[in-house]
Amino acid sequence: MRNHAHMLKRSYINEVMAVAPSLSGPLLRMHFHDCFIRGCDGSVLLDSPTNQSEKFAPPNLSLRGFNIIDRVKLALENACPGVVSCADIVALVARDVTVATKGPFWEVETGRRDGNVSLISEPINPATGLPPFFASINLLKQSFALRGLNTKDLVVLSGGHTIGMSHCSSFDSRLYNFTGKGDTDPSMDPNYIARLKLKCKQGDQTTLAELDPGSFKTFDDSYYRLVTKRRGLLQSDAALLNDPETRAYLVQSTSHGSTFFKDFGVSMVNMGRIGVLTGSQGEVRTICSKRN
Ligand code: HEM
Question: Which amino acids does the record list as binding Ca(2+) 1 (predicted)?
Answer without folding.
Answer: 34, 39, 41, 43, 54
